[in-house]
Amino acid sequence: MTTAGTPNHRPGRTPDRVVERGPSRRDLFRFGLTSVAALSVAGCSALSLNPSDKNGGKGSGGGGKAGTGLKEAPALSDQVKAGKLPPRAKRMPGKPMVIKPTEPGGVYGGTWNTILTSVDADPHLVGSLSYEPLVRWDVDQTKISPNVAESWEIGQDGRVYTFKLRAGMKWSDGKPYTADDLLFGYEDVLSNKDLYPVMPAQFAPDGNPAKLEKIDATTVRFTFPTPQGLFLDQVASSGGAVLHCLPKHYLKQFHKKYNPDADKLAKDAGQPDWTKLFLNKGGSGPTEFGSWQNTELPVIYPWKLSSQSGNRLVVSRNPYYWKADTDGRQLPYLDRVVFDIITDPQVSTLKLSQGDYSLVTPGLVTLQSKPVFARGREKGSFHFIAIGSSRMNDATFLLNQTHKDPAMREVMRNKDFRIGLSYALDRQEIIKVVLLNQGEPWQTSPRKESGLYLQQLAKQYTQHDPAKANEHLDKAGYRQRDSDGFRLRPDGRRLGFTVEVRTNFNPLWADVAQLASGYWKKVGVDVQVKVEDATLLFNRVDANNHDAVMDDGDGGDLPMLSPGWYFPVDAGAAYAVEWGRWYESKGAQGQKPPAGPLRQMRLFDQIKITPDKQKRDELFMQILRISQEEFYVIGTVLPEARYNVVQNALHGVGGEMIDDCCEPGPSAPEQYFWKKS
To answer: What does pTM read for this prediction?
Structure first.
């Protein structure tokens, strides 16, 4: 999620899954409410997904020059002829991973141009380039398929997972990719307390880490002390990226176990110790900043970092990439991917309208900007694709029930107080004014298509009913009011709090928060909105220094992989930081929670060691029913499909994706190709 559970202790993170969305998924601009109202008059044709004519197109040269009969890119053939590269058969596995192209007729060459708003491991960057887990989700996020591992076996009721790696795979520098790389990632990185004080939960579901064995050069076996029912899903969702993306032959030079002079090496490089140098060289995996700063880091991705400047990141074809299309042609088709880093919203809007980019950082293509782009589709030769939402909410309010101030903590823990605030929200007006009539009133239930939908959780307290709002606020004990009509706490102070909203994530949040503040003031609760830098907000949540924060809501499609929206799984749960810290630390830190969340924690402990999916679903439904009763988080709107822009001449993208941590990775960007009509 984005305020309740990720490995960086950010609000919404989930401990078992690096979910996308931290501060890096930048949204650069926000239209005011007046602009929103003006844009809402756009006709239906302007908001449709695709124009009537999807032909034409323009883009980066090279596309269409290489015939479809070639088995590798012409530039690679030239290097082979010059003796600078071994032949294709020696660069690829004997049985490469075969990708069925979305469209036939892929040609070599060309550049995919896209936009970031920063390079700090933006999820768009990670999903576009590095979604290469042991096993992977398909584009619909319904099925797990082979990837780095060509096969796997699960034994002993979910205690043993054996992965057969793809024989003959190589890193981008031509060195073999073997089981030793996985052992290095597990034993020397994830198990090293100096690098990872806490083993990621997917490898230690009950707190006791799994044992990883090398069976042979291409086979590894995980053995868990107890069954690990979620392991395959977690690995497919990028939760294991640190494990399988670390080249031992390169990174060991920065590791103290292999290089006694690693600290000296670090100091010579201006780093305080070897751990900082190791992580900065890419030892923290593709979801962190270091991997996208080091051009020397070998990778297994379709493209390898070739340059990174202040405003541009360029990745170029990996000649040792281990995938082929159904005709045996080595992928990727495209020569390069160029990420322009644009921080001026006017510039990014102009360039997108001109059709210069495809599949940009999601925050740049908002509902409010869609009519603007729609008007430029024909001239810019681009079209829209649908991005199906995996989230269960567009905007949530998380009130800190473990607040440091005892008086404020009493307010936030009062369920009637939270119910009153929920009834005060006019969700239909939010949908109409801010979201251009997209979405439906919703609390925090998983989506219907998840198979874990709970109507009572989704719909409770969603009516706009000021009378009920006042009734519950009175019931909460806040009947007395001051001369301005605001309610008073028992200590005589005005009843109110501050909602902190982070910048550069969702440009609509500030508008939603201001509307909510107005609704709540009408029922006597003085709520202020504070818009601030994302890093500052995350640090305040980590320190438990906040009243309330605003976020979205992950865990709509795969709620067990983002459980922090339904109970406090860690210190990133902004609605109960100290309860989550207690669970995360196994009671060593934080505060022991009351009976409701404690019961949920025990149920989730069972889920983590339950191999049977039906039983896991039954246990999670119990968690959701308790979440319904506890009512931790105030939701607003169930998201509908987003969209993104694709140049007409960029083929292979398909017509729809799922908004998730790995987007657009499951669509296989390695089979995108440029072909002018």
So the answer is: 0.79
